[in-house]
């Protein structure tokens, strides 16, 4: 039975060779198309994955560029800030600053003193009349108190001088009152022709930093 069936099949194939060839070709094409389709889908999946990774990397690079830009702006701001900070570790600079104010006020009519020094970095009060090497790099806010007995124009000159400084200075307190001297009535008319004397208390704060050199003599 099997031999008969095989014989019939062979005879059929011999008589229908073109059809058999077409069937074989179609089968090969079917397999090839499916194989190519699978390859194409795999390539598309890989392409999509690469595209996603590329977008992610591009986003991260953009964020890094933004961070780099922000960091540069921060460093520029920090550099500008440091330029406007007084170096409280430099005693020579402090001496020159006080002498400059005393020349405006007059040594006999005023008193300039540091009333408070606050370490903003360590969040505590410190003293500048000691070794400041442990505070190198710290930002300080120092209050100066000026007691003045002189003319109104002298007080104005002092305030203008403070405003013109390149440092961060803020006037916290300004108390002015007329200073009346004990004089005779005859001299009152002469005094009325001169600028009135005042008593003033001026408190101003100055932002600064202890420089890298620490105490500088």
Describe the protein's topology.
Blueprint lengths: L1 H14 L1 H67 L2 E2 L3 H15 L4 E10 L4 E2 L13 E13 H13 L4 E10 L6 H7 L5 E13 L8
Parallel strand pairs: 1-6
Antiparallel strand pairs: 2-3, 2-4, 4-6, 5-6
Short description:
The chain has 5 helices and 6 strands, in the order ααβαβββαβαβ. It is α+β, with helices and mostly antiparallel strands and 217 residues long. The radius of gyration is 45 Å and the shape is rod-shaped.
Mean pLDDT, to the nearest integer, reads 77
- Order of SSEs: HHEHEEEHEHE
Can you give the helix content as a percent range?
A: 40-55%
Radius of gyration from the alpha-carbon trace, in angstroms: 45 Å
Assembly form of the protein:
single chain
Tell me the structural class: alpha+beta
Distance between the termini: 121 Å
In the predicted model, the low-confidence regions spanning at least 5 consecutive residues are none
What is the global morphology?
Answer: rod-shaped
Main beta sheet strand tally, sense and closure:
6 strands, mixed
Number of strands: 6
List the total number of helices. 5
Relative strand content = 15-25%
């Amino acid at each position: 039975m099997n031999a008969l069936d095989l014989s019939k099949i062979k005879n059929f194939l011999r008589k229908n060779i073109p059809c058999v060839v077409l069937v074989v070709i179609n089968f090969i094409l079917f397999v090839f198309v499916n194989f190519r389709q699978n390859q194409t889908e795999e390539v598309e999946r890989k392409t999509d994955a690469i595209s996603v990774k590329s977008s992610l990397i591009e986003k991260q690079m953009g964020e890094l560029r933004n961070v780099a830009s922000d960091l540069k702006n921060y460093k520029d701001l920090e550099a500008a800030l440091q330029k406007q900070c007084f170096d409280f570790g430099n005693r020579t600079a402090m001496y020159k600053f006080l002498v400059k104010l005393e020349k405006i006020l007059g040594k006999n009519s005023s008193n300039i003193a540091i009333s408070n020094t606050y370490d903003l970095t360590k969040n505590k009060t410190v003293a500048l009349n000691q070794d400041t090497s442990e505070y190198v790099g710290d930002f300080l806010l120092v209050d100066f108190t000026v007691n003045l007995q002189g003319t109104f124009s002298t007080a104005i000159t002092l305030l203008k001088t403070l405003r013109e400084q390149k440092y961060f200075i803020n006037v916290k307190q300004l108390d002015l009152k007329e200073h009346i001297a004990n004089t005779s009535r005859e001299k009152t008319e002469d005094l009325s022709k001169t600028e009135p004397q005042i008593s003033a208390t001026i408190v101003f704060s100055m932002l600064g930093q202890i420089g890298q050199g620490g105490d500088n003599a």
